[in-house]
Write a structure and sequence with these properties.
4-stranded antiparallel beta sheet; membrane; 161 residues; 30% helix
């Protein structure tokens, strides 16, 4: 009888773990970077650059966007935002949306040198310029591109500074 109860408990545990894994796998990734990657996949041909309007894909109100790439410091971001920024910037790129000088959405994208499967951010900057760009709601159009290398697709957005 005791063996039967233990077996029944293990079957239930296995079932719960299995259901939890299925739920996690089936959830859609709703991050903004994932949405941008989908737009690049749909709009950009292999070697083409396409425009991505953040106004069209954001579901929240904002009036200023800061885009930063790896190499930006918290101080650089604070200066660009006009407010103290305390988020992590080590090996991160990101998008920070503000509404009336308050952060309403922030997405950090870790840098992956070996296999950059995440969205990569590149700022075409001049010498002595910062690694970030501030865009207004009306000007928030990014350049998207994708490149297929060794059975992997790499997605990037770029902005001129």
């Amino acid at each position: 009888m005791h063996h039967y109860l233990i077996k029944k408990i293990w079957v239930r545990i296995f079932f719960l773990v299995f259901i939890t894994l299925i739920i996690l796998i089936c959830q859609n990734d709703k991050s903004l970077s994932s949405q941008i990657k989908l737009i690049i996949e749909d709009k950009c041909n292999s070697s083409d650059i396409c425009d991505i309007s953040l106004e069209e894909i954001t579901s929240f109100k904002w009036n200023k966007l800061l885009v930063f790439q790896v190499g930006s410091s918290s101080k650089d971001i604070s200066n660009a935002l006009g407010a103290k920024y305390e988020g992590s910037t080590d090996l991160m790129s990101g998008l920070i949306f503000e509404l009336d000088n308050k952060i309403v959405y922030e997405e950090l994208i870790p840098y992956q040198a070996e296999q950059p499967i995440n969205l990569q951010i590149f700022i075409d900057k001049k010498v002595n310029k910062t690694n970030n760009v501030v865009l207004s709601f009306d000007d928030a159009i990014l350049k998207g591109s994708k490149e297929r290398v060794d059975h992997a697709t790499y997605y990037s957005i770029s902005i001129n500074n």
